[in-house]
Each structure stands twice: as C-alpha cells, then as structure tokens.
Amino acid sequence: MESTDVLMGPLLLSRGVVDRSAALRNDENWLRRVWADDATRVLLVHEGETLIRNSGAEASLTLMSPAEAPEGPRYLLGVDAAGVPYFAVKAPLTAGGRAGDPMGLRRAGALLDDRDAGLFVYAVALEAWHAGHEHCPRCGSRTDVAASGHMRICPKDGSQHFPRVDPAVIMLVRDEADRILLARGPQWPEGRMSVLAGFVEPGESLEQAVLREVLEEVGVVAAAPRYMGSQPWPFPRSLMVGFFAQALSTDLRPDADEIAEARWWSRDELSAAVRSGELGLPPQVSIARRLIETWYGSLIETD
Length: 303
What we know:
Blueprint (H helix, E strand, L loop, with lengths): L27 H8 L5 E5 L3 E6 L4 E3 L12 E6 L5 E6 L10 E4 H4 L5 H19 L11 E3 L4 E3 L6 E2 L4 E9 L5 E5 L11 E4 L6 H13 L3 E12 L4 E10 L13 E5 L1 H10 L10 H10 L7
Parallel strand pairs: 1-5, 10-14
Antiparallel strand pairs: 2-3, 2-6, 4-5, 7-8, 8-9, 10-12, 11-15, 13-14
C-alpha cells in the first residue's frame, strides 16, 4: 500500500447539492411567497444539533413545511435543482413536534446523503456565527439579522457584518522512511491520536502556517507542503485546509502545552495498533482521517 495524489474517500462535511441562491436572500417578495408554500422544506437547528431520522441502514434530516416550523431566526439555505427552497430555523428541537433523534454533525455527518449533509453543515455554521456575533464590534450595540441570516446590521452606526470562518491548517507529516507523525492533545484520552493542526495567523500564508505549526508543536523541521483538500469544521467556525508535508528532521520535542505525546508510525505499526485497540484514529467525518487513509493506501476499518 502506498499514498496517492488524491484524497482517499469523500470529505463528508464538504458535500452539498443545493444552490445557495445568494441573489434571493434580500428578495422579500420571493421570501414571503416561498414561506407560504407547503413545498418549502425547513430543518430545525439548536446548539449544533438537528433531528435525524435514522433507520440504521440510512439516515435523513427531519424536514417540515413552514407552517409546521416553530418561530425563530430563519436562515435561507438555498434552492435545489427541482426549485424546492430550504430554510433552517433556530429553535428547540422539541418545538416542531416531529419525529427524529437529536444529533450533531460529528455523528450525523457520516450517515447523511450529499444534500442533507450539506444543508446540516450550512445550518450549523450559520447558527454558530450568529451566536457569537450578536453585538457590533465597533460600538457594542445589539445587531439585527438581515439577508436571510447572512448579515447582521448595527442599528446605531449602520455597519454591516458578514459570516466569517477561521482558516486552520491540518497536515500529515511524513519522514524519509514514509512514516507518519501522529500526536495526542493533553485533553484527549490515552490512545487517541491524530495529525497536527493549527490556526493560520494574521499575515501568514497557508503554507507558512503548516511549517510553523509543525515546528512549534513537535520541534520538527518540515518542507514541501502540498495541498490535499479542505472542508468546513463549524465547531464553531473553522475551515480545515489539509496538506501533506515532508519532514527534514525526526527528533520530537513536543510543546507540553499543546502536545501530550507524539510518535512516528509505519503502516504495519499503525495497522497493528488499530486492530489491537491501542490506537484510536480520528472519526470518518474528519479530514484528518482522510489524510491518514490516503497515506495508508486504503480505508481503515476501526469498528
């Protein structure tokens, strides 16, 4: 088995088939019309969860008509190819009186199809942004929601504020022997490890962030960062940008504040540790898992 130039398997939180329909966000006539249409579909979102119908073999969002939806902030998620509009309403999940189990993205992201996964990620990301940006950063006044949930406006100074994401790099580092570097954060349980990651700093490129984070976290000099893919990670508002990088040194000097332990793994070592239960890998919903499996050369069964 050997690594490929293409990520192994889908990035489960990067899927979506519904057009975001930005031009309709301020069309009040259209918004009123479709909100009165029973064909319009609505999902509830509350603290990062929604209702999921899960039969075991397949799962889907619990969707409802606008008439069935409770009151709450409303976000336009877009219109599909058949012309069906989709909205999210921020409200307690019990308020809709509909069937389904409350689930978050980490669990549901791997169960849903492309349409439902994309809608759920979008709704969670918007909810998280609104929760942390209720007040104007200039004057502190409470802002008003506008543009179908895609803007907040300060009523005092008129400033407009738009949803933001925090770019973070996540990198699989390999040495000359094609071993990979995995590490465990201090807050993680024993045996759980992942690739390195960190936020991009002001005035820094993605590639610079990769090399800096590897050096700061484990003391390894790296080079040749190569972009592999990206996916949203709305916990609360990250965009994870994945890279492969080559290690120029292998001595590990973990930063005790960031890293509890770190080590190099060959494919045979990793496979044996996963099978025995010694090593827990990141979940399938994460880009970290895809980076590891791409290097490994196949999907890794952990259940």
